[in-house]
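For reproducibility, we list the full input for the zinc ion complex.
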Amino acid sequence: MQQFSFHTHTIFSDGKNSAEEMLNQAVKLGWSEIGISDHLIIHENITASPSWCRWQKEPHIFWNNFEKIYDYFARNCEYIRKISDNYPLKIRLGAEVDFFPYGGWIEKFIKIRERLELDYCISGNHYLILDDQYHNLLDIKDVDKIDSNQQVKAIRRHLKTLCLAAQSGLFEFIAHIDYMRKIDIFTDPQFDEDKKEVIEFFAHNDITTEISTKGLRKNGVFYPCLPMLKQLVDNRVKLVISDDAHRVEELGYQFDYAEKTLQELNCVNRWSFVDK
Ligand SMILES: [Zn+2]
Ligand SMILES: [Zn+2]
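The corresponding predicted structure, in tokenized form, follows.
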């Protein structure tokens, strides 16, 4: 069974436990390795979002200034590196990053990623993008603020963004590819072709994605759902099991069930961390 998770959060972003508590639990589970991937959400126009009133309550998660988020992340990185020696497992420092390819974002992101000396990044896209220039974002809790036509466009843009994130080469894997199923119309067959294109893009470009047990915790279905998972395996897309743990008891959550599911689907292409 997979004995690690690279998709985990601590109180530094929206997790409920400290890094120490998460690391202690990983040791208890007998893991030899763990990656900590707190949220890195930086968009210079974020305060113009119709959802800003929601996000501004969490100023340590939603940022509009690259220098400031660098300072915040750097302090945490330094802290985790300092405590790492106390644990008998390999600790990798990462981030779960919302990918916003508006002009200049990628270059600025690469700079802070390098300065932070992160071991890895995963792409986790959580917001609707309201325009092709990626200037305006919306929290999916505010999806009712846009009409159904705009919702369709935003979902298509989101699925395209997953491919752009993958293509950027900045991410070790792409998280929760059907995250937008939180919006009712995401399951509509009109998006089947768009989803298929994402999976084929991943297949042709050797992109890794996750099977996340967070979906099981939330509504009894993996991220991604079984039909997408089956398509991923059939296309031989590389997979990693994630728990997207936000608290200690979520580390390794239902990994045995995820393993069993991958076996039943005859998945042979599995991801593991490779030092660069
Ligand atoms: Zn996420
Ligand atoms: Zn996450």
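The mean pLDDT is 97. Residues 96, 124, 126, 175-176 surround zinc ion (ligand 1) (CB under 6 Å). Both points were considered when choosing residues for closer inspection.
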